[in-house]
Write a structure and sequence with these properties.
four-stranded mixed sheet, single chain, 58% helix, alpha+beta
Amino acid sequence: MRSWSIPAGRLFGIEIRIHLTFFFLLLFVWVTEYSAHGPAGAVRGLALVGIIFGCVVLHELGHAVTALHAGVPAKGIILLPIGGITLLDESQAYGPQPASWQRDVRIALAGPAVNLFIAFVAGSILLAIAPEIRLFDRPFVYSGNLLRSLVWSNLYLGLFNLLPAYPMDGGRILRAIFVRRMDPVLATRRAVTIGQTFAAIFMLVGLLTNVWFTLIGFFLFAGAQLEERSAVFHGVLQTVHLEDIMLTGFATLSPADTLEDALDKAVHSLQDDFPVVRGSDMVGVISKQRILDALRSEGNGYVQSAMNRIFDVSSRQESLASAFRKLTARRASIIPVVEEQHLVGIVTLQNLMHSMALLAEGRKLRKQAMES
């Protein structure tokens, strides 16, 4: 989620991030409008981008609210100029409605429905009270007429997102249909391939006619790549067990160790986090950063006074998805793996992310080998 995007706050508990392509759009609009109409035109162009941004936010909130009603909370929204990506947390799904392709279709249709509803309402109001706006005059989306642009931007966003080009909502509907008869990751890959074909067509048409089609193709391609990585990521999370990636050669600390002794051990270890063990019992966890902070603030003491006594444990057979939930729920960075109450391994956030990247790359290489 954090690749090529920056945080923009939270809305209704959902993390909002802006994809860097939005800033590319800002720069493009500023340059083209400034060269054509001067500083005033550039400002109006940025205002038009602001309208599009608001339409995209409402579009994605439509997805998020519908998903929440279906029992699947949204954990984040990434905003793209041509729409956005609402990341649903299937691991936290609740309620009576099970996962189904019909549910996914309803969620996908919610975004375009919001934009089409806004276009209808705003267009009706403007026709009734402000006919001088000339709603049906060209150009429909124009920085010199922001009210007309509000109507047509929503209409375009709603209709464009119904194209069967993943990650557009039409592509999500197509993926939902694919999921009925194949693995979800494979269904995503197939939908992504179709989406990238649309992206290539838009880029080619843009080279021959209008540069805006090239931009749309670029944004489509970027969104498809982001969704494919997300699908592979979740596929790895669900199918790989902790015993496949846990660290079995690791250092431990004793609660009776001094902080200086603990720091010395940390210096000679690649670990950033340590289980604290008394005899055969695990009694806490402590990080390298916590050791440093305690030494700076309190001087040399004992690990027992600085360690975290509240921690989750996992078993060998738990999935990476389960471990990831535990790590994020407590904002922890280490999960001890126990078997018959004995510590047999650890999973740290660092090694979890590293292992997932390697496993995903391994799957990609095997897929390429089978295709060749």
